[in-house]
Amino acid sequence: MSAAYFYHLTRRPLEVTLPSLLAKSLQAGWRVYVRGGDQERLKWLDEKLWLGGDDSFLPHGLEGGEHDADQPILLGVSAASTNGSVCLISIDGAIIDPSEVADNERVCVIFDGNDQNALGVARSQWKTLTDAGCSALYWSEESGNWQKKAES
Question: In this structure, how many other beta carbons lie within 10 angstroms of the beta carbon of residue 47?
């Protein structure tokens, strides 16, 4: 059964945490769609992912290109992916519908714990998903390592 994994960032920023999650997703054989709310922010993230170095190369692209369907990792703002993804990662408060939890192998919600607005959005998403019957796990890096703090 699928679940939504909530990742509460407190020590490392998105551009450090996301590549690790993406690499693990690719190792699992999953295609990934990273959903954001702002195209400019996704362009910035795209540049950060390209600067990762040869040993940490993550094949990816920005949504809207002619090869979207071929991208193992696609960054976009659409409600639906176009790359056949089975892992959906929400950043910057991008909305996840409860049906998407059931439709994907994995759903991740990454949020900045140093941003009160982001905390509020994540809490709202947790409530929406769990009220709809979705399983959810809350992970925090507060101690320096990722630890599961809650499950519903």
Answer: 10
* First CA to last CA distance, the chain: 13
| Count of the separate structural domains present in the chain | 1
What residues have CB less than 8 Å from 105, skipping those under 6 apart? 2, 28, 30, 86, 87
Q: Calculate what percentage of the chain has a pLDDT beyond 70.
A: 98
Q: What is the pLDDT of residues 96-150, one digit of tens each?
A: 999 999 999 999 999 999 999 999 999 999 999 999 999 999 999 988 899 999 9
pTM for this entry: 0.95
Residues of the domain holding 13: 3-151
Stated length of the chain? 152
Sign of the C-alpha dihedral, residues 151, 72, 113, 11? positive
DSSP state of 140: E
Assign residue 60 the CATH number of its domain: 3.40.50.10110
Residue 1: per-residue pLDDT: 62
